[in-house]
Structure formats: structure tokens, C-alpha cells
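DM from R.C. (forwarded with permission)

"hey, sorry to bug you on a friday — could you get me a structure for this? deadline for the figure draft is monday and I only need the backbone to look sensible"
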Amino acid sequence: MASSIHDLARHLNISIGTVSRALNGRADVNAETRQRVLEAARKLNYSPNHSGRNLRRGTTHAVAFMLQPHPGDQQYGEPFFIPFLTGLQATLAECGLDLIIVMGAPADYQQERLRRVVETRRADAVVLAWTRREDDRIDYLSKAGFPFATLGRSRSGDDSYPSLDLDFEKAGADAVDRLVARGHRRIAAIRPSLDLNFGYLFLEGYCKALRRHGIEVDPGLIVDGFINEAGGYAVTPQVMRSKDPPTAIIFNNDSMALGGCKALAEMGIKPGHDVAVIVIVDTPLCRYFSPALTGFRPSLDPMGRRLGEILLASLPAFAGAKGPEIIREVWPLELVARDSD
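My reply, with the result:
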């Protein structure tokens, strides 16, 4: 069992204050005493209690990641967020910081959880995901002057906060280019609802590419749905029952794609044979579907590590000699060609 600072003081027969100063490298403790304290700490498996010290210093040595799972029985996000969070934690740990996950759903409840994190100083900084086109959380943190970074972009705020996003606009355009090159002219786009900004970016790339190829954008081939399997299952039949149905579908989410492919199969339409399918963003789920789904893959662990670096670069305590800087990056997605298109 780990010892406390009181155990160390009793074992060495010196005051708690002397032990504390020795452990923190204070100059008013002589070298011999400091060595005795450090050796005893190792021998007794001393485990420091950071909470009191952190309260006095006004720091927590923690970063809060605000995660909003989708309501319902299908919890979106694990294939995407787990490797991303693994990378983020690795970078933070190198600087002695812990990563804490703050869950909040629906959106108004997450806003309340975020407010509590800020007002009670439960973390030194926040990372936001699922950025909206207009995001109240970004406005709140900017106004409060609380350090944060975002996984994703938004129209809210300005360029005064760090961010990392995927290039959904280019992926949407590249998907259209790939399908047009294979002879498709009726291409549907299925994206998440909830005002998520990456859905808008994807749609912008999709529409620009269609127009570049001289193909008119058909609003009847664009639908929104819940960002889970049930959402894809519910909305895919809408586009397939149109007067002039698509010969290809681009899904802006892997879970929606799986639900959509199940709906296609139940309609007697074989994905990869009767209709081409491309997914943005690819996860391991797509690899094991039949047919294996062509998709655009993100580098999740490296993204997490890089967002950690971007956040730390904005914090004075970790920024280094050149001082804090605001870094905003957009990363490409890698096409993984499989059997579905």
C-alpha cells in the first residue's frame, strides 16, 4: 500500500513541512536531508496526493475531452474516438497531464457539464469534438477565456483557438470524382443531422464536384439522418425510392453506411453490385462488411497525438521559449479501395 506524506515524516522523524519541501526540490533543504527523504519515499512506495497541491496552485494537471454520445441504443463513436483518444492521452502523458472524459447528451446537458468543468476548474483545458456549424460551446469558452482546442471546425469564434480537422470537403469531392470516372451520374449523399459541421463540409465538396462534372445537384438525392446504424437504415430507402434512383451512394459516416447497406439488402439491392457505396469516414467496421466498403480513412492515433501537441502549444506553461501559438490544421483522408464501388 502506498504511504502518505505523514508516514514519511514519522519514519524519518522530521516535520511534514520539511518532507514536502524536500520532495518539491526546495533550496532551503540541505542535500543530505533531501536524499534521505527521496530514498525513504522510494522504499515506502510514497504516492503524492496532488489534489490539495493542485487546489492551492489553481491547476489540475488534467485535460477534459467533451464527448457527446448519440442518444439511443447505438452509441456512435467507439471505432473513431478510442484510437484518437489513445493518441491524445499519449501526448498529454508526456507532459504529466491526465485525460478525463466528460460525457454529455443531449446537447443542452453537455453545455451544462462544460460549464461545470470550467467554473469548478476540474481541468486546465478542454477539447471539444462534434463541432457544430454554429457552436455555443466555442462561444462560451472564448468568452470565458478558458483554454480549449477543437477536433473539427466551426463558424463560431474566430481564429483565436487551436483546432485540427479532417478535409471532408476534399474527400466528398474525391468520392464524386471516383464515381463519375466509373460512369455514375446519379450519386446520392447521406450525411448526419444535428448541424454537425463536417456534414456541411462534405456536402460542399460533393456539390462542387458534381457541378465541375456538369452534373446538376438533385436535392432529392441528399438526405440527413441520425449518426448511427438506425439513422442510415431509416433514410437510405428515401433516396432509393426516388423517381430516378441513384446508382451510387456516399455515406458521410461508417455506422450510417452499415445501416444503409442493410436497408439496401432488404430492398433486394446488392451494395457493390447494384449500387456503388463509398464511406467517409472509414473505420474497421467497413473492412469486415460484405462487400468490404471503400472508404476514406483518417490517421486516428496520430491525429490524437497532434491535437495534443496543438493544444499544449497554445498553453503558456507548455509552449516553450517562443511562447504560445495558435495552430489550426486540416488533415487529408486516405482512400482505401475495396469492393463496394
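R.C.: lifesaver. Residues 41 and 54 are 20 Å apart (CA to CA).
me: no worries. The first helix runs from residue 5 to 12.
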